[in-house]
Amino acid sequence: MIHRNIIQVxxxxxxxxxxxxxxxELFKTDFNQLDLHFLIQGVLSCIVYVLGNQSGEQCLCAxxxxxxxxxxxxxxxxxxxxTDFCSQVEIVITNRSxxxxxxxxxxxxxxxxxxxVIQ
Length: 119
Known about the structure:
The chain contains 3 helices and 3 strands; from the N terminus they run ααβββα. By secondary structure, the chain is α+β, with helices and mostly antiparallel strands.
């Protein structure tokens, strides 16, 4: 998520630089204070956009599955409680082939599954 936002900021900054350069070539003018003002405003807008889009949470699970693999296909289950960095309980399941997925802990199937695993 953060990498995507950084790329967006870099693309916008590149576009702003291109526009300033095109304006200078088109109108045969030098880079003046007004151009600098718009460039700084664009940079600040990008920074505010990136900071505003970050939720502040650093959870492991970006998406959840509603189905659970068969117990024989599961090699590991990790349960992460709520922390200051993530406000939700996370259940990360690793299957025998090494794939990992998150199970939504609020679903009844997840609660039943955990009850079976604990027994």
